[in-house]
Specification:
By secondary structure, the protein is an alpha/beta fold. It has a domain of 160 residues: TIM Barrel (Alpha-Beta Barrel), CATH 3.20.20. It is 31% helix and 21% strand. Strands 1, 2, 3, 4, 5, 6, 7, 8, 9 and 10 form a ten-stranded mixed sheet that branches. β8, α6 and β9 form a beta-alpha-beta unit. α2 runs parallel beside α3. The longest helix is centred in the last third of the chain and has 17 residues.
Length: 242
């Protein structure tokens, strides 16, 4: 059962781009839980404008119409949808989900009460509320490098990164396309004490993901970091909504 597009009156409502994983099963495609069955709640809106972003439908209103690409949905309806599935992992992604984090607190509380575990996919520019730093919640923090098409003065926020480190509930996942990106990741790791570190090869096609993986693998291994693939790109010809 999909969440209702028309929210309940008076309920906490979120800007949602899409929800998937109940009607057509899928899995977490990246990071420590890669390959685990998962449900996805993708929030709309972002505070960055990365040129290499693969979910521009959540924020780039020069290309997409927000009235077509997002709805306002009530937290109770999202909970009914998520708890209709036996899958225990719910990935809250975006866009940048922590832009709406105050309204996400009751959603996360409801998911945890139902026995779900939660992973946030976040760009790491906004420190998490204390109410979200709880047992059963993990933050997959993905700071964006300049090579991803964004100014690092906007995408690298020291105070937020330090808050994620202090939470002890974060892993740090970087998109990389060249060995030079690994050098920059190393600088950030040393500057902010980021740990553990996952590297994900950039690529919008399976061929590109494989080629970048091979270009990076030896250097990632030499740094004793983790390497993750982009499973949705490898598995599905059209990964949107999967």
């Amino acid at each position: 059962m999909a969440p209702r597009a028309v929210p309940r009156e008076g309920g906490v409502r979120l800007f949602i781009a899409e929800c998937f994983g109940v009607e057509q099963p899928t899995f977490q495609g990246e990071g420590p839980s890669c390959g685990h069955p998962a449900l996805f709640i993708r929030l709309s809106r972002c505070n960055l404008t990365c040129t290499r972003c693969d979910t521009k439908e959540t924020w780039d209103w020069s290309q997409f119409d927000p009235r077509e690409e997002s709805t306002r949905q009530a937290v109770p309806d999202l909970l009914v949808w998520a708890t209709s599935s036996p899958v225990d992992l719910v990935v809250i992604t975006g866009g940048e989900p922590l832009l709406q984090q105050r309204k996400l607190v009751p959603l996360v509380q409801g998911l945890r009460a139902a026995g779900k575990r939660v992973e946030f996919e976040t760009n790491g520019t906004l420190a998490p509320l204390a109410e979200l730093v709880v047992e059963g919640v993990q933050f997959n923090v993905s700071p964006k490098l300049a090579s991803f098409g964004v100014l690092e003065e906007k995408s690298i926020r020291p105070a937020a990164l330090q808050a994620f480190v202090a939470s002890e509930r974060a892993v740090f996942k970087f998109v990389a396309s060249a060995v030079s990106d690994l050098d920059r990741i190393g600088e950030l790791v040393r500057a902010y004490g980021l740990d553990p570190v996952w590297v994900m090869p950039e690529g919008a096609t399976s061929e590109a993901v494989i080629a970048t993986t091979r270009a990076l693998a030896d250097d990632v291994a030499a740094r004793r970091w983790y390497l993750t693939t982009r499973l949705h790109v490898l598995a599905f010809p059209d990964p949107r909504g999967r």
